[in-house]
Structures are given as structure tokens and as C-alpha cells.
User: Fold this.
Amino acid sequence: MKWRKIGRIFVPNGQYDWVISHASVPFALHLGGNIYRIYFGGRNRENKTQPGFIEIDITDPFNILRISPEPVLKLGKPGLFDDSAIWCHWIVRRGDVLYMYYNGWVRGVSVPYYSAIGLAISKDNGLSFTRVSKAPIMGRNDVDPYSVGGPCVLVENNVWRMWYWSAVDFRIEEGKPMYYYHIKYAESRDGIHWERKGIVAIDFKYPGETRISRPCVIKEGGIYKMWYSYAIGHGGYRIGYAESKDGIHWERKDEEVGITVSKEGWDAEMICYPFVFEHKGQKYMLYNGNGYGKTGIGLAILEEE
Assistant:
């Protein structure tokens, strides 16, 4: 496949207090016609992340139609699992209700943070969300003993299917803390209570590979296709790609992804957190560049399958 970068469509620069910097982990919700709402995590003056959105016309993506003045979900109270950061990773529409699966962080002492997966719902078409619980719907257990995050959720035949990153180790390397995480798979009957069996969907492949995150899965022609971020050592992310016949057993085909860092500029050091969606038969990819979203959100269009 071959992607053509259209360009950077949004740069966070303090438009509101919740988006002083960063526009991390973009997710596109179709509102109708050519209009999309793009959720992302913005950082406030305390360097804490909360989710909000911009709205664009996909045919004129550089023209920002709207920016949410407030986060759609605010940080949890001190001591809760999401008191330090919240990223919207995936939204599922069920009738008039939106299910937002998100990453929640609480800062740690022996490790920089603990991550867990929360769920919030919206009944106003995504303008605001309410937690289903003060606790995560998926946290640490014997299968995922360190941290979990980055949920991608599809519903098929009344089975809710989740791909998520799972930290399997923590080390201090070159004087820097490092979680090691890959992508696992879980199932649910209601989208709230999840059964985890330790099934690894995307495992480490390269020498020194440390992080595989932000899965984005679509099903097309009977084939499951996944885009994700991966990194070697402390290096910057690249975007990877894999295929599967059942959504459980995957073959990595990173060499076929067709998009990488630019020679210079806002996405020359890393390219990460892909979200792929289709509009009128054309595939688009939202992604972040340098600094895990610090330099904004880019948009690419698929030119060759």
C-alpha cells in the first residue's frame, strides 16, 4: 500500500486551557455528510491530558470548523486511576449511545505511571461523556500484571472484541525507565466485563523492540487489518501493519505499511498513533508526529492498496 500525506491539519497552541500543548491519539467520529469530529488528548498547564475534539470537513481538512472549549471527560479525583491523564482511544456507537474506551493514568513512584482502561458513555452524540465506573473496566491482573491501555473495540455477532496494549516488563535502560508492551486480545458480551486469556495478537518481532501500541483494526473482504505503532529501544515510533483471518492470529507486514517519517519537519523524528477510516470509498489515516502528538495531527490518504 502507499499513503500520500495531505499535511498537518491541526497544531495545538493553547486554543483553550485543556489544549495548551499536544493533540495525541486522534480518533475520527463521523457526524454525517463530510463532517468528522476528531477526538484527541490535549495537555493543560499542569501537563495533564484530557480528551476534547475538533471538527472538520474531510474535503477541506485544514479548515477547523469547531474546537471543543472544554474536555469531553475531565480527570478523575486525586487517587483514582485516571487522575493524571485520559486519552480517548476508541468510540463504539450503539443506537443513540456512544461508548468511549479510554486510557487512564495515575502517576507512580517506582514506575512513572500505571495505566488502565476506562469506559464512559455519551447520550448527547459525543459532546460530553459520563464514566460507567470510578474504577477501570480493565486493569492489572495476573494476565496483565503491569499496565494496559490503547483499546480498539469492534462488535461482531454480539461479541465485543478488544485489542489493547499490555505491558509485560519494566526496566531501567540507559538510565531511563522503559515499559515493554505488546498487543493482546480480549472478548466481552456487554462491552463492560471482559474475559482475558493472555492471547497475544501482535508480539515483538525485531531485536530491541520495546513498544507496540495503539492498535486500529478494520475488517475488509473477510480480512482483519491492523495498523499500530512500534518502537526499537528508546527510539521514536514507526507505524506498522498486520493482517489476520480471525482477528486473533496475526501476521506482521510492517514493510507493506506504505508510510514513514518525513525527511524533515513535524513528523521527521517519529510517526505514531494511526487511526484509519473510510469515507466514500477512500481510506484516510490520522496520525501523530514528533513528541507523541506535541506537533499536532496529520492526515494521509491511501493511493495504492
Remarks:
- The first strand starts at residue 2 and ends at 10.
